[in-house]
Amino acid sequence: MTRACLPPKSDHSPINFAVPPGACDSHVHIFGPFAKYPLADDRSYTPQEYSPAQFAAHLDGIGFARGVLVTASVCGTNNGSLLEGLEQYPDRFRGIVVPDINVTDKELDRWHDLGVRGARFNLLQIDGKPMYRNGVGLEVLHKLAPKFSERGWHAQIWAHAPDLPELAPKLLPLGLPLVIDHMGRMNTSHGLNNPGFQFLCKLLAEGKGWVKISGADRIGDVSKEYVDVDPFAKTLLEANPDNVVWGTDWPHINYFDAALIPDDGRLVNLLSRWIDKVADLERVLVTNPARLYDFPRV
To answer: Which of 163, 249, 264, 280 is catalytic?
Structure first.
């Protein structure tokens, strides 16, 4: 048995800045309907069902125009919910799938036509142990990388920043754009000088990788309004603001304590602490995701 996740908050704090037209929430999940798209039997948590329409309402609520659906680990390699979402909102959504190693060219082409622009790989380990069950790893990435390259896709890497120096020789030779999830999913207690975090900054600075400055609630202290996350996000932005995107991680799965569930408005408002220039805000929310996910220009 797995634990049932709590739902996201029903409302959020007001947004404290003008959200630019075409803004993109670059990391969310949808699930179900489970009768049609069941979760993996072996999973780390059990989310509720969340439809494409609910995600669209989430975007409307925070004043964003676009969003990127990411297949979560509990779905295994069943991308059905995501693909249905892309069918329903072809101009508004893009997708990041978790592919089976035997996926066909025909399937990949269909996914691309629907709006898939990358695949996610679960390399996240803490103290040498996988943090979540399911997902696919390096074997699948190495086999499918040429097919992704042909289609202009990227590899979204879910990994712990301290592991990046060791992983890099297995990732960089593939020649794919690499997008690192959630600032490297490293607790802020590791500090800015952690070699893995510094490696991530170098990857950005050299244009060899991208990062999502999402997941403040996963790495920081909610009781302190995530102020401990501020220097990490700012350092990544300073490394290369052209290769940074942002997301809420809605609907905030794998939360079991209502006091810890993040407020989407507060998460959006972190950007006003991290970014001083309107031009950089435009980059992170509009220009960069349009380039990475192949959205039409606003």
So the answer is: 249
Q: What are the residue boundaries of the structural domains of the chain, listed by start?
A: 24-293
Average pLDDT estimate for 85-100: 98
Look at the chain and count its residues: 298
Name the CATH superfamily for 24-293. Metal-dependent hydrolases (3.20.20.140)
Predicted TM-score (pTM) of the model is: 0.95
pLDDT of 68 above 80: yes
- Torsion angle, CA of 147/152/157/161, rounded to 10 degrees? 130
Q: Distance (Å, rounded) from C-alpha 116 to C-alpha 78?
A: 14
- The whole-angstrom separation of Cα 254 and Cα 251 is 9
Computed over every residue of the chain, the mean pLDDT equals: 95
Structure tokens at 86: 């892309």
Q: Is the pLDDT of residue 117 over 80?
A: yes
Is 249 labeled as catalytic in the residue annotation? Answer: yes
Distances in Å between the alpha carbon of 224 and those of 165, 228, 260, 265, 274? 30, 8, 12, 16, 16
